[in-house]
Amino acid sequence: MGLMKAISNRNARKYEKHRSNMELLGKCPDCHGTGFHMPSHIFDDMSPDDCPHCDGSGQYTNWAENNQYR
């Protein structure tokens, strides 16, 4: 159980570091500021979709408004 908790804590720290770096740059941490996501499954339609977390803007401020309860 300690190993799983250590891995979970490491992932949380890594995501928090990524989020704070993206905040400094003013970019959405989920789409890296591009405003879209590529489908994650090979059988999905390969056209990019607007990022649902920043509403396709790529801006950190929009991401923060949409993810305030995360």
Detailed description of the structure:
With 70 residues, the chain is mostly helical. Helices cover 44% and strands 6% of the residues. It contains two helices and two strands, in the order αββα. Strands 1-2 form a two-stranded antiparallel ribbon. The longest helix is centred in the N-terminal third of the chain and has 24 residues, at 2-25. The chain starts with a helix and ends with a helix.
Main traits of this protein?
70 residues; mainly alpha; two-stranded antiparallel ribbon; 2 helices; 2 strands; 44% helix; 6% strand; globular
Query: In which range does the helix fraction lie?
Result: 40-55%
Strand order of the largest sheet: 1-2
Distance between the termini: 25 Å
Order of helices and strands: HEEH
Given as residue ranges, the uncertain stretches (5+ residues, pLDDT < 50) are none
